[in-house]
Design brief:
The chain is an alpha/beta fold. It is built from eight helices and seven strands; from the N terminus they run βαβαβαβαβαβαααβ. The longest helix has 29 residues.
């Protein structure tokens, strides 16, 4: 039986982007429950996340306001978090957006905004984190949030699908470069989860019913479902896992 300490994040600092709501909030709460000090990053208020972290027994929480769509500002934010608060042990790249339109009507603006945040900022935050970790001679953990659309096409979400395919590939590339240097890079591919990004789908009765009918677990996912898997990938228990993308989708991809 595994030592439960292998699943503990006690004494670790974890930076989570897009932690004000949804999956990022679920990850922040789960990591805090496992003992981590949380650096929650986003553009809007973190008050709800702070309350949930405290209710989960988390004792160390800091909120950072940053426009993560600006990859340079995101890098500077991570640099400052490291330099002012001490080493960061784990980075969770969760912040992301989605735009919906038929491919023949998809705008350049909607393409650029999604790819810039979902993929470009993810890469440059990984880079900034790795530079600090390698310079300090410390181990580090990166968890990128991919999607079931890293494996499928979807419909009406061209830039989102492209960006999430990119996140999967980037996760593998960085694992190949950094695994031997003590940095674990992995990803989680959520299925259909109750978040702001899926509001339009859940409000479309026909589309929501079709999605639910395909999920073997017979329910939409919750942010906590993703949070618990993120804790595993941030914890010592996953020490020999590199370049993996774990689907947390209620069985969606298995059907």
């Amino acid at each position: 039986m595994s030592d439960l300490s292998a699943f503990s994040l006690a004494g670790k600092r974890v930076l989570v982007t897009g932690a004000n709501t949804g999956i990022g909030q679920g990850i922040a709460v789960a990591a805090a429950r496992a003992g981590a000090a949380i650096i929650a990053v986003g553009r809007s208020s973190m008050e709800e996340t702070a309350r949930l972290v405290e209710a989960a027994g988390g004792e160390a929480f800091s909120a950072v306001v940053c426009d993560l769509a600006d990859h340079k500002a995101a890098q500077e934010m991570l640099d400052e978090a490291w330099e002012t608060g001490g080493p960061v042990d784990g980075l969770v790249n969760n912040a992301g957006i989605i735009r919906r339109a038929d491919a023949v009507d998809f705008s350049e603006t909607d393409w650029d905004e999604v790819v810039d945040l979902n993929l470009k900022t993810t890469f440059f935050l990984c880079q900034a984190f790795a530079r600090h970790v390698l310079a300090a001679g410390r181990p580090g953990r990166i968890v990128n949030i991919a999607s079931v659309l890293s494996f499928q096409g979807g419909i009406r979400v061209a830039s989102y699908t492209a960006s999430k395919h990119g996140v999967l590939g980037l996760t593998r590339l960085l694992a190949c470069e950094w695994a031997a240097k003590g940095i674990n890079v992995n990803a989680i591919a959520p299925g259909y989860v109750v978040t702001n990004n899926t509001t339009a789908l859940r409000q479309d009765e026909d589309r929501s019913a079709a999605i639910l009918a395909r999920i073997p677990a017979a329910r939409w996912g919750e942010p906590s479902d993703i949070g618990d898997v993120a804790v595993f990938l941030l914890a010592p228990a996953s020490g020999y896992i590199h370049g993996a993308t774990i689907s947390v989708d209620g069985g969606w991809l298995a059907r």
